[in-house]
Amino acid sequence: MMQRWNRKKSHFPIVAVILLGVVVCSILYNESSIQQIHEEDPSNQGPKHQQHASTVTYVVPNLGSHSNLAPVFLDRFSRCNSTSEYSGKRIRWGDSHVKKGRRKSSESCDVFAGKWVFDSESYPLYNESDCPYMSDQLACHKHGRSDLGYQHWRWQPHGCNLKRWNVTEMWEKLRGKRLMFVGDSLNRGQWISLVCLLQSVIPADKRSMSPNAPLTIFRAEEYNATIEFLWAPLLVDSNSDDPVNHRLDERIMRPDSVLKHSSKWEHADILVFNSYLWWRQGPVKLSWSAEENGACEELDGLGAMELAMGAWADWVASKTDPQKKRVFFVTMSPTHLW
Q1: How far apart are CA 193 and CA 153, in angstroms?
Q2: Which helix (H) or strand (E) holds 270?
Q3: pLDDT digit string, tens, across residues 239-258
Q4: pLDDT tens figures, 117-157
Q5: What are the CA-CA distances from residue 154 to residues 46, 301, 335 (Å)?
Q6: What is the DSSP string of 96-115?
Q7: Closest of 232, 255, 231, 252 to residue 310, by C-alpha
Q8: Strand 90-91 vs strand 326-330: parallel, antiparallel, or unpaired?
Q9: Sheet harboring 252-253: ordered strands across?
Q10: Which residues contact 51 (CB under 8 A, 6 or more apart)?
């Protein structure tokens, strides 16, 4: 046993040397790779990058609201006469006209931090078949989904309990107000769900739903309240703003203007925005408001979304009083299939 142990022990220095060599080679290789990445990264190009940054053109968004110029809006027939690479223009927003002060919430619990829990006793809060406004796009049970477990999930904040849903109390909070969802079909689904939650206590002759249009309105007469949905999938002006005919080969937007849509949402008391899914569908053509002759630039979806969100944020920062208007933004949502 001693001989066998000594024989094994004699190999340890050799193994250690080999392992040390592998570690040293790995470190040298990684340092070389990091150095190569560092040299290729445009953000690390020193004076050259700084010089480029100093020449960036900043565009003041939503200028039609600050000037006498009548904005020219896009529609589904709009086309680009020419397309060039993205020039690097950026959106300048909220610098000088942000309204100071934020509404301080009296709530001691963050209702946005929580988890979904299964609740088979108190959920669902409404049945799909009982809502006359349910969209076929959202009617899972009607179109053959056999398991109904998905209807029993309830949101549970970490630090408190939400009050039991009370339809009448909700209408009292909405009395004399406009609640508007703005965005794409995912937000439209949230709007329809809220309408289905609320409509049951309103007599049929005291409620109405306007025909499908860019702005669709559910109205409860006795509460003088509306729950509305505005189709604006990119939030900024675009050629995809028709709620029916928006599947186009070429997506064009005005990255510096929300004015077409803000004229419809500006007087709402509660705004719920979303914009996410459409930016994942390939490059976008940019038609800047000051550009003439149909000249466009092309940019990837993520970059285009950043520009659009700048124009949206400029409107929120300059046009909303947090003491009078509540603004929410839904960052991400499952697709219709999930």
Answers
A1: 14
A2: strand 270-274
A3: 999 998 888 888 999 999 99
A4: 999 999 999 988 899 999 888 888 888 888 888 889 999 99
A5: 52, 33, 19
A6: S-PPP--PPP--SS-TTSEE
A7: 255
A8: unpaired
A9: 82-85, 295-299, 284-286, 252-253
A10: none
Residues 6+ apart with CB under 8 A from 248: 76, 239, 240
Confirm if 200 and 130 have CB atoms less than 8 A apart: yes
Rounded to whole angstroms, the Cα distance separating 194 from 165 reads 12
Dist. CA 172–CA 225, nearest whole Å: 9
Please state, in angstroms and rounded to a whole number, the distance separating the CA atoms of residues 301 and 283.
5
Output the pTM of the full model: 0.79
Rg (C-alpha) for the chain, rounded Å, is: 28
Longest dimension (CA), the chain: 100
Q: How many CA atoms lie within 13 A of 134 on its CB side?
A: 17
Rounded Cα–Cα distance for residues 151 and 163 (Å):
19
Report yes or no: 234 and 242 within 8 Å, Cβ to Cβ. no
Strand partners, 295: 82
**Which residue in the block uniquely carries the two structure tokens 């949101």?**
155
